[in-house]
Write a structure and sequence with these properties.
The protein has 260 residues and is an alpha/beta fold. The chain has 2 domains: 5-176, Spore Coat Polysaccharide Biosynthesis Protein SpsA, Chain A (Alpha-Beta Complex); 179-257, no CATH class. The chain contains 8 helices and 11 strands.
C-alpha cells in the first residue's frame, strides 16, 4: 500500500542542480514530483531531477505563468503543492501537511486550497523587515480547481472554491544564497519585469529612471524598516533599487525606440 499523500509537487527548473538535489529528497511524502525543465539551462539539472525520481518534462521557456500552467497539466494527483527550487518546507510545515492525510484523501469541495507563510533568507540570514516579513501564499490546492495566469513573472494561481485555512510552519525562500545569485537574478528579473510592463501597455520616461530606484530604496530601507536587518538589509535594499533602475532603463529604451 502506498502511504504517501495524494500530492503532486509542481517544480520549474533551469540550472538549479544543487537546489534540486537538496529539495527533492525532502518531498518523499508526496506521490510524485513533476519538474518542467527549461532547456536553456544545465543538462545536469534535468539529469539530477530524473535520478531523484521526478517526472521531468522539457519545455521551451514562455514565461512563469504559462510554464506553471503546463506543469499543472502534467500533474496526476488530486492535490498540488507548488514550490520553487530555492524554497524549503521547514519541519513544522512537513509535519502539518503529513497530518492532513485524511482531509486530503476526501478532496472536499468545502476546502479547495490552503495557504503557507513564506519567509525570506538573503545570503544566509533571515530577513524580517524590508517588506520581507512573511506573506501567506496559496501553495497547496486541488488540481481540478486551479489554473495559473499568463504573467511572464510574478504569476498567480487562481483556485475556485473556499480556502481560508492556513498550514502551520513556513516555506523558507533561499532566493539569494551567493553573490552570483544576486547578480544573475538582478538582470534576469529586471528584464522580465520590463517585458511584463511593456506588454501591459506601460511606458517609461527619464523621471521614472531617475526617481523610482531611490524611492524603492527609501520604501524598503526606511518605511519598511530594512535598517533593522543590518548590513544584509542594506545590501538587499540597494539590490532591489538597482533592479528597479534596470527595469525602467530597459522600459525607457523600448519606449524611446518603439519596442525594439
Amino acid at each position: 500500500m502506498d502511504d504517501r499523500l495524494p500530492i503532486s509537487v509542481l517544480l520549474l527548473a533551469r540550472d538549479e542542480t544543487r537546489d534540486l538535489e537538496e529539495l527533492i529528497p525532502t518531498l518523499a511524502f508526496a506521490r510524485e514530483v513533476v519538474v518542467v525543465w527549461d532547456p536553456r539551462g544545465e543538462r545536469a539539472t534535468r539529469d539530477a531531477a530524473e535520478r531523484l525520481g521526478a517526472r521531468v518534462f522539457e519545455r521551451a521557456w514562455s514565461g512563469f505563468g504559462p510554464q506553471r500552467q503546463f506543469a499543472l497539466e502534467q500533474c496526476t494527483q488530486d492535490w498540488v503543492l507548488w514550490i520553487d527550487a530555492d524554497e524549503r518546507l521547514d519541519a513544522a510545515a512537513v509535519w502539518a501537511i503529513g497530518d492532513m492525510s485524511e482531509l486530503l484523501a476526501r478532496c472536499s469541495e468545502q476546502e479547495t486550497h490552503y495557504r503557507l507563510r513564506r519567509v525570506g533568507v538573503f545570503l544566509g540570514q533571515r530577513i524580517r523587515w524590508c517588506g520581507w516579513g512573511g506573506e501567506w501564499l496559496v501553495r497547496l490546492f486541488q488540481r481540478r480547481a486551479a489554473s495559473f495566469d499568463s504573467a511572464i513573472v510574478h504569476e498567480r494561481v487562481h483556485v475556485r472554491g473556499p480556502g481560508l485555512e492556513q498550514i502551520r510552519g513556513v516555506i523558507e525562500h533561499h532566493s539569494y544564497r551567493t553573490w552570483e545569485d544576486c547578480t544573475t537574478k538582478l538582470v534576469r528579473y529586471a528584464e522580465a519585469n520590463a517585458e511584463k510592463a511593456w506588454r501591459a501597455g506601460r511606458r517609461a520616461g527619464a523621471l521614472d529612471v531617475a526617481l523610482r530606484p531611490p524611492l524603492r530604496f527609501l520604501r524598503m530601507y526606511v518605511l519598511q524598516l530594512g535598517v533593522l536587518d543590518g548590513a544584509h538589509g542594506l545590501v538587499l535594499c540597494l539590490l532591489a533599487s538597482a533592479q528597479v533602475f534596470l527595469k525602467y532603463a530597459r522600459l525607457w529604451e523600448r519606449s524611446r525606440t518603439g519596442g525594439a
